[in-house]
Specification:
Elements: H1 2-7, H2 9-14, H3 31-41, H4 47-54, H5 65-95, H6 99-132, H7 137-160, H8 169-207
Helix pairs in contact: 3-4, 5-6, 5-8, 6-7, 7-8
Subcellular location: Secreted, Extracellular space, Apoplast
Domain Pectinesterase inhibitor: 32-192
Protein name: Pectinesterase inhibitor domain-containing protein
């Protein structure tokens, strides 16, 4: 899992501006490709964040809902890995001196570790859709939807877990912001995945006699 996170360094660089409320502009994708990304992102809960994060991928997306969903999942995983590294560092600093604060951060870290695994599984599962045939489509899609929904739940569990704990205000705010960013990106990835699933089903339905 750590090796996978290391391999996502390039995506981390691309996603550095993918934070809620960011105003940074992406590079210059073709107008047609960017229009495709903007259109797809309208199905998400955080469309501005979606466009900010995915515009750099617009030229390579080939206007494919599946590829865009795949990339959105990879970006979410990259941010989750980045967040895990930060929370791991904080936990190590607190472990020897502040037991109560450490436990709150450790509980959050456990949630993030689970999220990294579930996002990784989701990426692999989406890739298998192309190889296992139409008969397993429902199985793969339901797995991805379940795992991504769990990531969202775990993010909120992490944030709620700081209530009543005297973790330093700046540290607590930073962790919450990073975890919330992962949740927003994952929410967008789930929406894009659901859009791909809906379009795929509609296309298959029309193709049937």
């Amino acid at each position: 899992m750590a090796q996978l996170c290391h391999s996502l360094l390039f995506l981390l660089l691309l996603s550095a501006f993918c934070i809620t409320g960011a105003t940074g502009r992406a590079s210059h994708p073709s107008s047609r490709a960017r229009a495709f990304v903007v259109e797809q992102c309208q199905a998400t809960r955080y469309p501005e964040l979606c466009v900010q994060c995915l515009s750099n991928h617009a030229n390579a997306s080939a206007q494919s809902q599946q590829q865009l969903a795949q990339y959105a999942l990879a970006m979410s995983l990259a941010r989750a890995c980045y967040t895990r590294a930060y929370v791991t560092k904080v936990a190590a600093q607190l472990k020897q001196t502040k037991a109560k604060e450490y436990q709150a951060v450790k509980d959050c870290l456990d949630q993030i570790n689970d999220s990294v695994g579930q996002l990784s599984q989701s990426i692999n599962e989406l890739q298998r859709i192309n190889h296992d045939g139409e008969g397993n489509f429902l199985w793969h899609t339901s797995n991805v939807q379940m795992w991504l929904s769990t990531v969202l739940t775990e993010a909120m569990t992490c944030i709620d877990g700081f209530s009543g704990h005297a973790v330093g205000g700046k540290v607590r705010a930073t962790i919450k912001a990073k975890v919330l960013n992962v949740a927003h990106m994952t929410s967008n990835a789930l929406a894009l995945f659901n859009r791909f699933v809906a379009i795929h089903r509609a296309t298959r339905s029309k193709a049937q006699p």
